């Protein structure tokens, strides 16, 4: 068998046991570059879900009491195995997600970084010693694993986003029931296999696929699950957070974004446009941190629009497996429909299509890199998260006008500004409503930096010590070493 062949049937992992299609319904997995079915995915039954929960509960007893140093050793070994298997995992990722192979390899690099960071950071999950209120008293706080976790992951960075949740949870001493996206399962199966081969005990990590609402509802309602971590859209996040609230369970929600970019008239237009094009069209625009609304000051509006348009036109769009491809297809038909609708609506509302604007070819979910200019402030595309390779440009005159428009959505995940003036940069970072801010730069999320949205973009943080704290409970202990 070709080492890179897509597995025709995929598997769930329940209580340390791989479970295939036999006796289960199945779902197709489709290559977005060809629209061909490439594999079939078993749908977890209620019994699979319940057994995964029981296994996560049973494994928690020992995994949470395994030392942080031993847990770290397992995570480091998983990272080594993923590194050794990286070509195969990256190939599977491109086949099911569509991203260029080089980007899939880049995603694996970030998986390794997440595992290594969490392994080391968990060793520093220190508590505090308080000044005691009386002699012979020791009063302290300790951090302890919060319990079994439900981790729900989308299809845009399926391995990295799964690895970030699983690594932080396991490093903290939690056990996990992971449900990645049904659209992109195989690379996650390999991620989980690496953890198992590295020595994660049976039941400490379980993998389910199936009907998302059915699985999430059952997991959240189960008394076993003590924490929910979800990445995805605002409506689904709101639904899951509501369910979690009914059971008084904490959740981390990494939801949508609609990041503004403010381009001031003092910039080097070519450099700013190059940076914007690279980050805008990364992963075909399907990134929650993507710059997705461009507010450009009048003095450079024409030049910036022209340069961004040239760069968009020059992008080579194609099958991610081809070596020259710079941008792959959208991951699914829902995104293709949304992209077409948003451009049509914007055009109807008065925007001008500078380049792109529609589907490319008849096979595969390819959408042309698109630049829209003269977009009116009331356009739908400025309010709805586009999650596609479309860059709407809006002109502005004054700083206050730009900030007001940038803050005029319910999203608050990321925001960017390009300026050489320190006063503008400082005022931008102070007044913008976003959790991830870039000035003259774009940065994908980092293992050691917390990412957390303001407003509807989320709850809590992933990454950094804050991302590990999300899987731990802080307990206060007062120990009298002699009876009064
Ligand atoms: N923050 C991010 O990185 C992501 C954001 N999105 C947002 O979602 C929008 C639509 O994408 P879709 O895939 O159609 O979004 P969606 O919100 O329906 O799905 C996103 C993920 O959530 C899962 N999901 C959906 N309903 C669920 C439920 N009831 N319980 C548990 N999991 C559930 C899906 O399986 C998928 O993996 C995008 O336009 C984008 O705005 C989507 C993917 C990732
Ligand atoms: O939550 C989704 C998410 C967050 C960050 C990134 S990246 O670090 O910019 O790749 C991708 C998806």
Automatic annotation (TrEMBL):
Signal peptide: none annotated. It comes from the Bacteria. Its EC number is 1.1.1.257. The keyword Metal-binding does not apply. GO terms for molecular function: 4-(hydroxymethyl)benzenesulfonate dehydrogenase activity; succinate-semialdehyde dehydrogenase (NAD+) activity. InterPro entries: Ald_DH/histidinol_DH, Ald_DH_C, Ald_DH_N, Aldehyde_DH_dom, Aldehyde_DH_Superfamily. Residues 25-476 form the Aldehyde dehydrogenase domain. GO terms for biological process: gamma-aminobutyric acid catabolic process. The keyword Oxidoreductase applies. Transmembrane segments: none annotated. Keywords: Oxidoreductase. It catalyses: 4-(hydroxymethyl)benzenesulfonate + NAD(+) = 4-formylbenzenesulfonate + NADH + H(+). Belongs to the aldehyde dehydrogenase family. Involved in the toluene-4-sulfonate degradation pathway. Does not discriminate between the sulfonate and the carboxyl substituents and can also be involved in the p-toluenecarboxylate degradation pathway. Homodimer. This is 4-(hydroxymethyl)benzenesulfonate dehydrogenase. It comes from Hydrogenophaga borbori.
């Amino acid at each position: 068998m070709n080492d890179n062949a897509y597995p025709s049937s995929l598997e769930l992992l329940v209580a340390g046991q791989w479970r295939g299609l036999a006796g289960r319904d199945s779902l197709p997995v489709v290559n977005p570059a060809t629209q061909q079915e490439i594999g079939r995915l078993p749908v977890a039954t209620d019994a699979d879900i319940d057994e995964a929960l029981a296994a996560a509960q049973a494994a928690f007893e020992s995994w949470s009491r395994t030392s942080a140093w031993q847990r770290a050793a397992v995570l480091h070994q998983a990272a080594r195995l993923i590194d050794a298997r990286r070509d195969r995992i990256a190939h599977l990722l491109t086949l099911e997600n569509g991203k260029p192979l080089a980007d899939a390899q880049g995603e694996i690099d970030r998986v390794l970084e997440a595992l290594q960071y969490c392994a080391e950071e968990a060793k520093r999950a220190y508590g505090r010693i308080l000044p005691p209120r009386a002699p012979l008293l020791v009063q302290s706080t300790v951090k302890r694993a919060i319990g079994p976790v439900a981790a729900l992951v989308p299809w845009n960075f399926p391995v990295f986003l799964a690895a970030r949740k699983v690594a932080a949870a396991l490093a903290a001493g939690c056990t996990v029931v992971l449900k990645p996206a049904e659209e992109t399962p195989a690379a996650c199966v390999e991620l989980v296999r690496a953890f198992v081969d590295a020595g994660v005990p049976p039941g400490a990590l379980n993998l389910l696929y199936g009907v998302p609402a059915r699985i999430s509802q059952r997991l959240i309602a189960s008394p076993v699950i003590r924490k929910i971590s979800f990445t995805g859209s605002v409506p689904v996040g709101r639904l899951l957070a509501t369910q979690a609230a009914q059971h008084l369970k904490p959740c981390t929600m990494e939801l949508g974004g609609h990041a503004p970019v403010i381009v001031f008239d003092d910039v080097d237009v070519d450099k700013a446009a190059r940076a914007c094009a690279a980050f805008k069209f990364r992963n075909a625009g399907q990134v929650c941190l993507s710059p997705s609304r461009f507010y450009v000051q009048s003095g450079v509006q024409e030049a910036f629009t022209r340069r961004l348009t040239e760069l968009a036109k020059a992008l080579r769009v194609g099958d991610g497996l081809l070596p020259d491809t710079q941008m792959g297809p959208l991951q699914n038909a829902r995104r293709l429909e949304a992209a077409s609708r948003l451009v049509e609506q914007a055009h109807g509302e008065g925007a001008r299509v500078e380049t792109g604007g529609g589907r490319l070819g008849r096979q595969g979910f390819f959408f042309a890199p698109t630049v829209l200019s003269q977009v009116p402030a009331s356009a739908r595309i400025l309010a709805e998260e586009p999650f596609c390779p479309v860059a709407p440009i809006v002109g502005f005159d004054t700083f206050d006008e730009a900030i007001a428009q940038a803050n005029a959505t319910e999203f608050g995940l990321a925001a960017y500004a390009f300026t050489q003036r320190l006063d503008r940069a400082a005022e931008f970072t102070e007044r913008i409503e976003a959790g991830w801010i870039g000035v003259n730069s774009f940065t994908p999320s980092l293992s050691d930096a917390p990412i957390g949205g303001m407003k509807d973009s989320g709850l809590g943080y992933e990454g950094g010590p804050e991302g590990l704290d999300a899987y731990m409970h802080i307990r206060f202990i007062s120990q009298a070493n002699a009876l009064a």
